[in-house]
Amino acid sequence: MSFAVLAGGIMIAFGALGAGIGNGLLFSHYLDGIARQPEAQGNLFGQSMIGLGLIEAMPVISIAFGILVLFGII
């Protein structure tokens, strides 16, 4: 097995793992914030959606680089 295949697989796997952990932490804290201050739900929702977009960008980038490594372009 080539090290490029291993490296590409690790990139894709850790990108997905990091996004899952990040989403879990983000929304657990979002729900904690709503439980503490229900009147701030609108403000917290907007901020959590921005955070979600930033968190979800990571696996897309890691999948792209992983595929590039797998097919030997990099």
Automatic annotation (TrEMBL):
Pfam families: ATP-synt_C. The record marks 56 as: Reversibly protonated during proton transport. It is found in: Cell membrane. Keywords: ATP synthesis, Cell membrane, CF(0), Hydrogen ion transport, Ion transport, Lipid-binding, Membrane, Transmembrane, Transmembrane helix, Transport. The gene is atpE. Key component of the F(0) channel; it plays a direct role in translocation across the membrane. A homomeric c-ring of between 10-14 subunits forms the central stalk rotor element with the F(1) delta and epsilon subunits. SUPFAM superfamilies: F1F0 ATP synthase subunit C. This is ATP synthase subunit c. CDD domains: ATP-synt_Fo_c_ATPE. GO terms for molecular function: lipid binding; proton-transporting ATP synthase activity, rotational mechanism. It is a multi-pass membrane protein.
